[in-house]
Design brief:
Blueprint: H1 12-21, E1 46-49, E2 69-72, H2 74-82, H3 85-96
Antiparallel strand pairs: 1-2
Length: 97
């Protein structure tokens, strides 16, 4: 438990693999550019779980798999986590297509 909520383990290798498969592009809008990461020497992207890990208790299999992880730019990642629900619905629908 972290700050009163359950935290599920994440494998950073799976996140890196998902970002690499997306060719270091934002899967919401592949024209989004960010700074170049020191580690990868590519566009900096962040991994986001489509089905949140907090839902793990509803699934038999792990949600921390490459198929459930998308590559998105930091701006879009913040949008998903902090935008009003009705506004982020369109963005999430794009990722589930």
């Amino acid at each position: 438990m972290e700050s009163g909520r359950e935290v599920w383990p994440r494998d950073p290798k799976k996140a890196k693999q998902a970002i690499k498969q997306a060719e270091f592009k934002c899967e919401i809008d592949d024209t989004h550019e960010t700074f170049v990461s020191e580690a990868s020497r590519k566009n900096y992207m962040e991994a986001h779980h489509l089905i949140p890990l907090r839902m793990q208790h509803d699934f038999e299999n792990s949600l921390d798999v490459v198929g459930n992880i998308v590559s998105i730019c930091p701006n879009c990642h913040r949008l998903i986590h902090y935008r009003r629900d009705k506004d982020k619905k369109k963005v999430l629908e794009l990722l589930f297509e």
